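Let us work through a complete example step by step.
Step 1: write down the sequence.
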Amino acid sequence: VDPRKMRYVAFEGGGETLTALLGNHIQVMSGDMSEMAPYLNDGKVRVLAVYSDKRLGDGFENIPTAKE
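Step 2: predict the structure and record it as tokens.
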């Protein structure tokens, strides 16, 4: 996706953003893994990368870091 063609939408918090994502009102969001984990395990969302120096543990080893 060409990032210049994307539109930024500001939400008040993660819950509102996640609701918009799950409702197919938005296609991408930046969020916290603690918010994503339940939906990731259910297959409702796909995490593209994590913003950490190393890959996470606890079942998230397959998610690359943004630097990778």
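Step 3: interpret the result. Residues 14-22 form the longest helix (9 residues).
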